[in-house]
Amino acid sequence: MRLIRYFLTFIQFFIFCHCLKRPHIILFIADDYGYSDIGYHGSHIRTPHMDRLALSGVRLNNYYVQPICSPTRAQLMTGKYSIHLGLQHSYIRPAQPNCLPYGEVTLGEKLQRLGYRTNLVGKWHLGFHKKHCWPTRRGFHHFFGFLTGAEDFYTHESDYLFPGKRKMWKGFDLRENDKNIAWDYQGEYSTHLFTKKVQKIIKKHDKSKPLFLVVSFQAVHGPLQVPKEYLQPYRYIKNEKRRIYAGMVTCMDEAVGNITKTLKHTGILENSVIAFTTDNGGRPHLGGYNWPLRGGKGSLWDGGLRGLGFVHSPLLPTKVRGSVVKKLMHVSDWFPTLVEGVAQGSVGKLKLDGYNMWPILSGETKTSPRKEILHNIDPLSTHPYRKKGLQSRQGRRWKRYFDTDIRAAIRMGKWKLITGIPGKYNKLGSHSQECTIS
Q: pLDDT tens-digit profile of 34-51?
């Protein structure tokens, strides 16, 4: 019995020491953030805190996400393309009985098995029609935030027009974990609220365990709302939507700065990896600016797909700090990158579409495993103007292999091929070599 006790004590000590070596991981997710709306891309919008992190870390200059919310978040959490998750068609609507497939292992679950304390603050948007779909059942020890895709920044109420009916659904969507509806926070601006919750988590965290913290901002998604003090620096902007949007961006940047300061004051930052990503491109009609990229949120042009992304960490080698990675990277790469590259775990037998990009980010190698990106294939979305009998002989020949009416896009090297209808905002300038077949 004594030998067994000693053995168990040794195992516990080994696990404790091993956990201490694993870096803390802080993942920021911005919502509907325009590609050009950050300081280091030359924007007039003030983002000093994000600029500092990015310019002293590694900027991702060829980084891609999905054109809308739920598919991007699903790929980030699973490391798989949307076509393997049943989420290639659109985002998950409030009244839709759908969520991230039950059988999928999430990033949170993987990191939990490696000893991480996992927390999600902010937006979920991966389904909630059953509690098994909720964050606390999908790899997170703690959740504070909202389950749907958008809501009022102050009242935390979500409006939804039921499809095909003149009926508006309205509901309060803010909760802590499974049972606690967070009524007490009505009237508190969500960016400020989420920041306070994140700071509280950091201050209370047991440093003997690695921390995985997802800060999923509601900003800068609509509705366009921001406290008045953030509008003052942008009084010169005549377009009201652009002015409010700029204030929202600066408020979000301030939140990133306050959270980073808390990480530093608690001593967690020195053993942390901070990653930043957007979920899709900005919306020009709501203040977002993606120039010189073509298109915006919801489109297969680069303005809808190319995301803002960077990594910052004191653990990065000096030689890569301040560098720019021009290799292709996709949102599905975060899963293996964080599990294998940062946490030094293993994805095991999971069949992923993502690659471990940490050797590229840390400068260990210049050879990237990613050569292409399948942006999407949506067989339910076809060319709405195509009429039978009008297809050319060449078009009929293509159909033997692939229906070019289907909305789809693939990236190979410096080229991107798009079929079907790419999406909105087609008249904006193009920055990449994109080819369409219709």
A: 999 999 999 999 999 999
Tokens coding 390:
């009008």
**Torsion angle of C-alpha atoms 201, 207, 211, 217, degrees rounded to 10:** 30
Whether pLDDT at 431 is above 90: no
Let me know the angle formed at the C-alpha of 44 by 43 and 45, rounded to the nearest 5 degrees: 85
CA dihedral angle for residue 425, residue 165, residue 183, residue 202, rounded to 10 degrees = -30
| Whole-structure pTM value | 0.90
Query: Which 3 state secondary structure label does DSSP give 408?
Result: strand
8-35 confidence digits (pLDDT tens): 444 443 443 444 589 999 999 999 999 9
Q: What is the C-alpha separation between 145 and 213, in angstroms, rounded?
A: 13
d(CA 30, CA 151): 15
Given a contact cutoff of 8 angstroms between Cβ atoms, the answer to whether 161 and 170 are in contact is no
Contact at 8 Å (CB) between 296 and 304?
yes
Q: Cβ(332)–Cβ(64) under 8 Å?
A: no
Rounded distance, CA 251 to CA 230, Å? Answer: 7
Q: Please name which of 203, 108, 186, 193 lies closest in space to residue 152, comparing C-alpha atoms.
A: 186
298: its two tokens:
């919801």
List residues bridging with 323 in a β-sheet.
Answer: 58
Q: Tell me what percent of the residues of the chain surpass a pLDDT of 90.
A: 79
52, 244, 252, 272, 402 from 48: Cα distances, Å: 6, 18, 11, 20, 47
Tokens of 207: 């440093």
**Residue 119 near residue 212 (C-beta atoms within 8 A):** yes
- The structure tokens listed for 304 are 């809808």
390, 268 Cβ separation under 8 angstroms: no
pLDDT of residue 291: 94
Instruction: Identify which of 286, 342, 405 has the alpha carbon closest to the alpha carbon of residue 32.
Output: 286
pLDDT-derived band of residue 169, with 50, 70 and 90 as boundaries?
Answer: confident
pLDDT at residue 429 tops 80: no
Residues with catalytic annotation?
69, 125
Please write the tens of the pLDDT for every residue from 109-138: 999 999 999 999 999 999 999 999 999 999
* Mean pLDDT, rounded, for 220-246: 98
Taking the CA atoms of 49, 51, 52 and 56 in sequence, report the sign of the dihedral they define.
positive
